[in-house]
Amino acid sequence: MAQLKPILDEDLDRVGVFLHREMNGAISPEQWAGAFRHPWMQDKPDNGMMLEQQGEIVGVLAAIYSERIFDGKQQRICNLTSWRVQEAHSAMSLALLKALVRRPDYTVLGTTPNEMVCRIYKLLGFELVPLERWVLRATPFAIGGQVLTGERARDALSGDAQRAWDDHGQFPWLHQLVLTDPSGAQPCHIIWRRSRWKRLPAATVLHLDHPESFMQNQGAWGRYLFWRYGIFSSHVEKRWLQRPQFVIGEEDYGWAAGLKSTELTADRLTYLYTEQMALPLE
């Protein structure tokens, strides 16, 4: 019978090989392992849980841990990711999940749930977060607002926002910028990745930290995407924005996440410090 064990740092190379072979071969073993090595929580308890039989990994539910500040209070977040168990050991799949959701002092967040995982989350008391997006058109001739990139963007941020910029700057599949204007509006830090919509280049937003500033300077965002990247649409989750300008469609893809928390609500959480950032997901 397979043994349930925590994934320690010294196990990550083997876990990377397992996930590359069993879950997604387009992501290299090194990328898989590297996703869990970031120092986003200094005293993280583990990197998830695994099943091991005779020295061989036969199942994994990995975790990315982070510490973030909300309303002046530190929150400990466990992002569940990459749940894969070999069929011969599937009866023990739930043991992996239960071992990670028992901790009362953590917000637990799973950001890529399929239909079966959503049913399990619901049974365990998770809130299911809809994946609903606004589709915003390009605004090549919009006036006003300003987009900052590179060091100018980083320098416009401070505190936790600047730390988030630094922590996510290492991923080549992500793009970061700051949206602002000369009037001194609160800088809005945006992280996005390339995608496609109706066979055309698009941008999917993974994080924005000041919705009011985004709404105020939305024209500059659409203008920048069009002229810099030839992007015709951007896609922003509805839980982060009230109805913005320049909407040309809406998307409903089922569920974005499962959330179990006594402190945080879904509208407060973007994809910072999660698998959506740390892995080159399509």
Automatic annotation (TrEMBL):
InterPro entries noted in UniProt: Acyl_CoA_acyltransferase (IPR016181)
- Its domain of life? Bacteria
The record's annotation in SUPFAM superfamilies points to: Acyl-CoA N-acyltransferases (Nat)
The protein's name is N-acetyltransferase domain-containing protein
This chain's source organism reads Magnetococcus massalia (strain MO-1)
